[in-house]
Write a structure and sequence with these properties.
Blueprint (H helix, E strand, L loop, with lengths): L1 H30 L1 E2 L6 E2 L1 H29 L14 H5 L4 H16 L7 H30 L5 H5 L4 H24 L4
Antiparallel strand pairs: 1-2
Length: about 190
């Protein structure tokens, strides 16, 4: 009985450690940015999909949720913090929809089964990652339109400048997918 408790504690400790490392990756990726208005271009979408593929839907979503809570409670983990404010006030700014979209994207990216590296497999994997990242942009654009007004060029401000960069990030993830799936087997938690 005690051995089972020890295994459970080890599993919990491993999940916490992996989640904290994931939030650190998200924070670093938020600080690698190209300033656009009203939404900066960062490497966060890459890391969100990376976490999904590597950790699976539950741990990846939990990691993103932990990251969001860190930011909401005032840690300077978001792209524009601390210079543009911190905490809940920053969270409810122009990027809130994108940040919430991270949760869903990590879940979906982690839920999909990724195919082999044949041409058909690459196309399927590409479409799965496009679907996952699209959720970020859909929620981001809905929130941005609600916040700044639908009379503004929402798509031009909140998606168009980022599309080419997203294709690059997804291409990079596609090339890394076999390695990420091997890493997923090594750190198998649940």
């Amino acid at each position: 009985m005690e051995a089972i408790k020890k295994l459970e504690l080890n599993k919990i400790a491993k999940i916490i450690l992996i989640s904290l490392l994931g939030t650190l990756l998200l924070t670093i990726s938020a600080k690698i940015k190209i300033p656009f208005y009203p939404v900066p271009m960062t490497m966060q979408t890459f890391i969100v999909l990376f976490l999904g593929i590597t950790l699976g839907p539950k741990i990846a979503s939990m990691t993103v949720a932990l990251y969001l809570f860190e930011g909401i409670f005032g840690l300077p983990v978001f792209a524009g913090t601390p210079e543009k404010g911190i905490g809940f006030v920053y969270f409810t700014g122009p990027t809130m929809g994108y940040l919430i979209g991270f949760l869903f994207a990590a879940y979906f990216a982690g839920s999909f089964k990724y195919d082999d590296i044949s041409v058909k497999g690459l196309i399927n994997n590409f479409l799965k990652l496009i679907f996952s990242v699209s959720i970020i942009y859909i929620l981001g654009l809905v929130w941005l339109g609600t916040l700044i007004g639908w009379d503004k060029p929402i798509f031009k401000l909140g998606a168009q400048p980022f599309l080419l960069a997203e294709l690059f990030k997804i291409s990079l993830l596609l090339s890394l997918t076999p390695l990420l799936l091997k890493a997923k087997k090594l750190i198998k938690i649940i």
